[in-house]
Amino acid sequence: MSEHTEARPAQPAVVRANEAVLRRFPFDDTQDVQDARRGFMGTAEKSVIRDAEGLTVWDLDAYGFLDQDCPDTANPSLWRQSRLCSDHGLFEVTEGIYQVRGFDLSNMTLVEGRRGILVVDPLLCAETAAAGLALYRSHRGDRPVTGVLYTHSHADHFGGVRGVVTEADVAAGVPILAPHGFLEHAVSENVYAGTAMNRRAAYMYGAALPKGARGQIGAGLGQTVSTGAVGLLPPTVDITRTGQTETVDGIRMVFQLTPGTEAPAELNIHFPDHAALCMAENATHNLHNLLTLRGAQVRDPRVWAQYLTEAIGLFTASSDVAFASHHWPVWGRERVTRFLSEQRDLYAYLHDQTLRMLNQGLTPREIAERIEMPPALERAWHTHGYYGSVSHNTKAVYQRYLGWFDGNPAHLWEHPPVEAARRYVEFMGGAGEVLRRARQSFTDGDYRWVAQVVDHVVFADPDNAEARALQADALEQLGYGSENGTWRNFFLMGALELRHGSVGTPTSTVAPDLLAALSLGQLLDALAIRVDGPRSWDADIAVRWNLTDGAPVTMRLCNGVLTHVTGDHAAAPEPDVEVRLAEAELRGVLLGVTAPADLASRPGVEISGDAGRLTELFGHLGEPDPDFAVVTP
After folding, report:
1. pLDDT number for residue 376
2. How far apart are CA 263 and CA 388, in angstroms?
3. CB-based burial of residue 558 (10 Å sphere; 0-12 exposed, 13-18 middle, 19+ buried)?
4. Which pLDDT does position 428 carry in this prediction?
5. Mean pLDDT, residues 245-266 taken together
6. CB–CB of 47/59 below 8 Å?
7. According to the model, what pLDDT value does residue 263 have?
8. Per-residue pLDDT tens for 313-351?
9. What is the pLDDT of residues 398-419, one digit of tens each?
């Protein structure tokens, strides 16, 4: 751990840079302030939302400090955005449509029908969703939930579903609508790489950071993620095409499918009887991510822009208001059209200009430094990089088209971080000399360079307290100057863990409901990811699962790879052991609920062959590390 454990003040270079932001942008434009507060009906009487064990999962008053003037330790533009995002309560969007905002990272929208309400995007966890629904009912009456709609496959838009409906409600006929491909993408994104994504998400949202002027002030898209129970109830109605119409409890909806935009499975919704357009997460009050810092597949800005153009043509002539599952609405047809057009131009410009420059031979970092945004777009607050950034989005476009390699053969076979760090430090005259020069760079305000060079000292010698302290100080200053909320959180989380060690991962989306929603094939694929390859090189084990309620499945571990085939497949090997059981029993084994050695005692399970091979096969599986090091080796 570092010898300096407390957050430090903003240094002169950061103070000057943040003062320049105040002069550069139109802080006297109050339109967003008016829109964010329009339709406010009230908020919850109790500010703290707790889980069943009494633990806090969300605190509505945690960001009250944002009512103060922006301090030196925050970028004024991000402070402004966070203040707007921290407004919480129930808001009327238009007659019959309401939003609960500020109760989680995302918004929950409630549309009134003939008998009850349609819930659109029930937040990230059951506790915040239930609190939001209770707030709505306290103002609009105890209306039943007569439908649920997931706009897309990210957990903050479906994870709280059990806070608004139950499995019994769905069995009794309450429909759950979602875009085609929703379930596959919702479970695969959160399970296959879920451990790594959750660890990085802890940095991205800064949930473990203290909230305050020197800590977490927001994430740009919203304030942070809640820490309650994430769940999933599978959709019952599949939206498969643009132009598809559905009516739920008298609420008419026209859908536009937008796959490959902000999520692999996503849709926009027009409510013709309300002249209202829900843009899901395709048009929000910030530049979004083309590649989120927590990790994901690269999104396609060209397709994103095309779908925004399509939405303008389909819906703006009959939309008096546009709202999304984050931030606040935009009212008036002319303003709605301008908002969507500027959002469209934002993604199209990033795509086209990155391609122009990469075809001139520029590398990702060069493009990120050289690209300039059109002044008309930069003047619009909703195009600012509070969540995505021009810098990391252009790198994402490059990655989408050309991959990780920048074409320079010197970068083709570089040493890994620790080995490279030791060589760098030795070449630069040793750790003492590097730190001496880095301290001068820190005084000069070149925090980017300090972070880049001192990182080598930390990775060469992670116990070097002086290096850790200086690196933490540099990252902290970079955070203080960041307009991007997720950059600030990453920088400050890095500083925090350099000073205090790992603080862990406070929330996880690898929830039981998501695991239960995996198909058997997906579950077997998820198991294969856990094989310790080098330890399994010499293993050759085949197991045949004869399902009493499905086709047989044969697994084989060979060459460090766990493969599976279904049915009497020509590739199925001769098994070492066969197990006759129901699919539910097999799922219990694959999920770790039932130990292989206990299978023989389970009712209805029959084993023939060498039962010890089962235990041997599962012994080759490792466990992921939810708290792996990020800023140290």
Report:
1. 96
2. 14
3. middle
4. 97
5. 98
6. yes
7. 96
8. 999 999 999 999 999 999 999 999 999 999 999 999 999
9. 999 999 999 999 999 999 999 9
> Helices 485-500 and 76-85, interaxial angle, to 10°?
100
Query: Tokens for 592?
Result: 């770790």
Query: What sign has the CA pseudo-torsion 112, 108, 130, 162?
Result: positive
In which element (H, E) is residue 109 found?
Answer: strand 108-112
Q: Quick one: 317 exposed, middle or buried, by C-beta within 10 A (0-12, 13-18, 19+)?
A: exposed
What DSSP state is assigned to residue 375?
A: H
Residue (of 167, 159, 163) closest to 230 by Cα position? 159
- Angle at CA of residue 383, ends 22 and 224, nearest 5°: 85
Token output for 369: 């430094």
Tokens representing 292 are 């989120």
Asked if 296 and 264 touch (Cβ cutoff 8 Å), the reply is: no
- Angle, CA of 218, 224 and 226, to the nearest 5°: 155
Tokens at 26, concatenated: 């139109």
Angle between helices 12-24 and 76-85 in degrees, nearest 10? 70
108-162 pLDDT tens trace? 999 999 999 999 999 999 999 999 999 999 999 999 999 999 999 999 999 999 9
What does the pLDDT average to over 83-90? 98
- What does pLDDT average to over the chain? 96
Q: Which tokens is 453 given?
A: 């060079």
Q: Considering the entire predicted model, what is its pTM?
A: 0.96
Report whether 284 contacts 382 (CB < 8 A): yes
* Residues paired with residue 268 on neighbouring β-strands, in sequence order: 256
Q: Residue for token digits 């002249």?
A: 275
DSSP assignments along 248-269, one per residue: ETTEEEEEEE-TTSSSSSBEEE
* Strands 276-278 and 321-323, sheet pairing: parallel
Closest CA to 158 of 211, 108, 94: 108
Could you give the C-alpha distances from 229 to 67, 122, 133, 436, 511, in angstroms and in order?
30, 12, 16, 48, 8
Parallel/antiparallel/unpaired status of strands 56-59 and 48-50: antiparallel
H or E element in which residue 4 lies: none
CA–CA gap between residue 1 and residue 519 (Å, rounded): 44
If phi > 0 it is left, if psi is from -120 to 50 it is alpha, else beta; for residue 342 that is alpha
Helices 465-480 and 431-444 pack at an angle, to 10 degrees, of: 20
Nearest in space to 587 (alpha carbons), one of 525, 529, 515, 530:
515
485-500 helix and 194-205 helix, angle to the nearest 10 degrees: 100
User: Quick one: pLDDT at residue 2?
Assistant: 44
Quote the distance between the C-alpha of residue 155 and its chain's center.
Answer: 8
Among 351, 116, 129, 119, residue whose Cα is nearest residue 226: 129
Report d(CA 519, CA 526) in Å as an integer. 10
Q: Which of 145, 135, 73 shows the shortest CA–CA distance to 104? A: 135
Structure tokens at 36: 């964010």
What gap in Å lies between CA 132 and CA 549, rounded to an integer? Answer: 41
